[in-house]
């Protein structure tokens, strides 16, 4: 025997999703993608959706030509050598500047994410019907990603009659380590964290690593598979995870409070 | 149809691994576990092995009664309220202290990992034949985890005739975010990072997130599945990933140099 069944989690991309445009109903596009592929979701599948397509559907495009940076943005832009219009957008999206250095601006986004440029993306950021002479365009992170996840999960349940969890993910850099990892920025149905405090180890002593970043690990596994896929595979299905159905667990449970974070 | 095949990655724990004791030949125990389960590994399966069992096999147990803290360890221990013997071990395992606060000691381990207590584990740390009156026992991170990974991968290839990659993983906390994620501390066969610089986005512009923490994402996906399993499942198989066979990619590629890390 070469492949087991019990306890197996499988991860695969959802094909047939078109390029998403501003104003699109992303939940309906995903339902259509299932129908076109003749697929059906299974009970407690977890759909991991890249933030990019959620932002595109929400129309979170900004034409940098329309941004008028204030004095603070111009000062920081001069100091670190960045486009002052981009810096102005980053500051508007953020609650604090964590670090700045030549070419680098790391902030805490209003969603709680600490990342470069407040997660503003300059690739894959062209609106579908951008007019001549506009741009460069950038794409902001989605608004209310927990709510966006819930809308998609509830639409899928309505269409297919099974509970489907949704994670909105983004690829985040980290301190200390090279490379990005998929992380959860919005959740519906799955718990954001798994708290095992009180459980015992093999020898009956309390476990040490007692809080696991449950939704982040699912997002990382989906990013791993999406990275293998051809361009444009923005939705990944994670099948076979067991978890307590958690329609009200906010993704903010993954955010360490600023006060008490030794690295902010 | 409810389940696709192409591009699917599946993740499942390897059963039948016994509790590992100091001096055990871990590679042979894993081969035995395959045989007992009547399983065979497949070409380019990735085995993710928790650092705990590698440390146990290497006999990285320390009886705190045998540790004699020096002046620096005693001073730090008094300052943060920790056992000075544990602090002495943490310092001996580390190249620098990143942060300290009451109850918290975050260092950069000689392997390059920035984590609490230099990854020293106080749960699951009891040697199999600990004598009465000894301990408390702790378990240090493995020595030369790349080499440990290679030995296991090469033994599996020798036994089963297929190339098997190995990742030694540990659950690491992170700044900014709550909860631990599985991360790679040793690799064999898989690249530690995936560098996509030069690739273009959907619209022909250069991609932004160009270096992915490839081995970390695999480790996170395995940790996700291990966390679901009953206690004692220390080896997880990741099947279906495509990657360039990389027998010489060191895990240190995932470590950001201390100089230039804005958060150290």
Explain what you see:
Two copies of one chain form a homodimer. By secondary structure, chain A is of the alpha+beta class. Helices cover 26% and strands 22% of the residues of chain A. Chain A has six helices and twelve strands. The radius of gyration of chain A is 20 Å and the shape is globular. Strand 1 (9-13) of chain A pairs antiparallel with strand 1 of chain B, so a sheet runs across the interface.
Keywords:
homodimer; 264 residues; alpha+beta; five-stranded mixed β-sheet; three-stranded antiparallel β-sheet; 12 strands; 22% strand; globular
Strand order of the largest sheet of chain A: 1-12-2-8-9
Name the beta content range of chain A: 15-25%
DSSP, total strands of chain A: 12
String of helices and strands of chain A: EHEHEHHEEEEHEEEEHE
Return the structural class of chain A. Answer: alpha+beta
Largest sheet data of chain A: 5 strands, mixed
**Which word captures the global form of chain A?**
globular
Helices of chain A, by number, come to 6
Q: Give the distance, in angstroms, between the N- and C-terminal Cα atoms of chain A.
A: 50 Å
Mean pLDDT of chain A: 92
Q: Which residue ranges of chain A are poorly predicted, with pLDDT under 50 across at least 5 consecutive positions?
A: none
DSSP helix fraction of chain A: 25-40%
What is the subunit organization of this protein? homodimer
Most extensive chain interface and residues per partner:
A-B, 81 and 81 residues
From the alpha carbons, calculate the radius of gyration of chain A and give it in angstroms: 20 Å
């Amino acid at each position: 025997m070469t492949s087991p069944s019990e306890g197996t989690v499988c991860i695969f991309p959802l094909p047939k999703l078109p390029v998403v445009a501003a104003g699109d109903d992303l939940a309906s596009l995903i339902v259509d993608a299932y129908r076109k592929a003749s697929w059906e979701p299974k009970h407690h599948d977890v759909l991991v959706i890249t933030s990019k397509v959620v932002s595109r559907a929400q129309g979170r495009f900004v034409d940098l030509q329309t941004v008028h940076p204030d004095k603070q943005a111009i000062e920081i832009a001069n100091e670190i050598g960045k486009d002052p219009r981009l810096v102005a957008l980053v500051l508007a999206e953020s609650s604090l500047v964590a670090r700045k250095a030549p070419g680098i601006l790391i902030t805490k986004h209003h969603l709680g994410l600490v990342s470069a440029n407040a997660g503003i993306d300059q690739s894959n950021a062209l609106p579908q019907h951008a007019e001549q002479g506009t741009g460069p365009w950038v794409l902001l992170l989605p608004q209310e990603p927990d709510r966006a996840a819930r809308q998609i999960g509830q639409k899928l349940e309505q269409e297919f009659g099974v509970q489907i969890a949704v994670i909105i993910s983004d690829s985040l850099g980290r301190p200390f380590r090279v490379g990005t990892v998929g992380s959860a920025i919005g959740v519906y149905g799955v718990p954001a964290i798994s708290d095992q405090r009180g459980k015992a180890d093999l020898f009956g002593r309390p476990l040490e690593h007692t809080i696991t970043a449950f939704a982040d690990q699912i997002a990382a596994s989906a990013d791993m598979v999406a990275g293998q896929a051809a361009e444009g595979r923005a939705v990944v299905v994670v099948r076979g995870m067991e978890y307590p159905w958690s329609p009200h667990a906010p993704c903010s449970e993954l955010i360490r409070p600023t006060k008490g974070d030794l690295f902010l």
